[in-house]
Amino acid sequence: MSDSVNTAKRARKAGIASFIGTTIEWYDFYIYGTASALVFGHVFFPDTLPAGVGTLLSFVTLWAGFLARPLGGIIFGHFGDKYGRKKTLVVTLVMMGAASFLVGLLPGYATIGIAAPIILTCLRILQGIAVGGEWGGSVLIASENAPKGKGVLYSAFAQQGSPAGNLISSGMFFALALLPTPQFLLYGWRIAFLASIFLIVIGLVIRLKLEEPENMKVVKKKDAVVKVPAIEAIKKHWVLILLGAGSLPLIQVTYLKTTFATAWATDTTHPWAYSSSTFLGVVTLALVVQFIVQPFGAVILDRVKDMRKAIVWIIVPEFVLMPLMFFAIELGHPGIALAAMAAATVPHSLFYAGIGGIIARAFPTRVRYTGISLAYQLCSMTVGGGTAAAAQWMYNSSDSIIPVAILSASYALVSLICTLILLNKTGWRASENSKAEAADEAEFAEALAAEKVEAAEAASDEGAPTDGPGTSDTAPNADATSTDSKPVPPRMPVTP
């Protein structure tokens, strides 16, 4: 089998495994967001709180997971850059599944009092640490195993796990919300968390069969791993980390579209309020649109020669579509709300498909896991985790959706500016190596050439002639070291 066929087969296998693993991880992460909008304010906080405060506090626990994500990025980025991507991804999967399962078993405030929200927050922090190490590793497993020049395209496999996990999460809660409200609050929501244990088993079976990317194998083989990857990444690549983080706010609008919008649109104080099942149906169908549309973002970036142009085409519509979505929801018509949410979903979905690969190619292999994880989780901590809580606070303070609409447009603006700067610094052609990849390739080629020389010398030493019948002690040496430029007999090895 040729090298190109082997590469293509390995790339497909890594891509599919990355997609399935991230789907399971994001399912676990997203069910918490949906539950925080619909359930946790009632179950884990006192029912004597003013209207909206319980939901706001549940969003604060949601934010705790985001605050923990940079810690997960540092911890698992460290191990991923030192010991490899595969083992790290197995650990993150188990940690996430265990935390979700325990949330499903956690008694409410009425049973154990203040211990309920405290334990809930701790479990959310464990989820945050796990997903903090998950995303970067999954993107790298897909992009580093890709054929040359296709890293951005193949990274979309990992990114596709997010809408898939979100879709399964919303679909699960849509079905569970059909239960009568008392039953849903008592036990229905717990089913979504307890079911994660079965998904984790499936994910483990798949991840344990993964192969380590070739460039990581070279780094480990030549003992070029960094002692403390986080220190080197921050010391030498802090600008790229900040630009990577600045390019990512746009993908956090999903928490405006799902978590905040679900709580806001189902608030019964609105005359136009939707039922929980109706609005979850709207969210679920919009996620179907995201799942279908998203891969085309990576295709666009792969096909357009200048990725900077593609990024502009993708992001600019979001300035209008996301703010319009909120005003459409206020009309109280499910069909209009669905059309507006589906339209608003398209730009940030296309962007999400390729941004992981764009950030990954900015860093050298030896600190790539750490670099991409720090960039992503820095944005998640400062923007993603606070998005739902900030939007809820803005709405509570102003009793208007306009500040939230402006917030969503500002995310798109920051992402557009930072992504363009990042591409200018690292390389803007998807088909060509970035600056970091080109440096890696030169270093690895040199290491491979040295390895071949060593192998040839070893083979030569092993094949050196020894005493035997018809062989003298001095003749071979005389032939090998003579200066009359006589050709060496065909079967006679040359001593280096």
From TrEMBL:
Residue stretches making up the Major facilitator superfamily (MFS) profile domain: 14-427
Superkingdom of the source species: Bacteria
Signal sequence extent: none
Keywords, comma-separated and alphabetical: Cell membrane, Membrane, Transmembrane, Transmembrane helix, Transport
Ranges of biased composition (kind: Polar residues): 469-485
Bilayer topology: Multi-pass membrane protein
Name of the molecule in the record: MFS transporter
Gene3D superfamilies registered for this protein in UniProt: MFS general substrate transporter like domains (1.20.1250.20)
Ranges of Pro residues composition bias in the record: 487-496
Subcellular location: Cell membrane
Residue stretches spanning the membrane: 29-45, 51-68, 89-112, 187-206, 237-256, 276-301, 310-329, 335-362, 374-395, 401-423
Major location (coarse): membrane
Pfam families associated with the record: MFS_1
Native source species: Brevibacterium spongiae
Keyword Transmembrane helix: yes
Residue ranges, annotated region (Disordered): 453-496
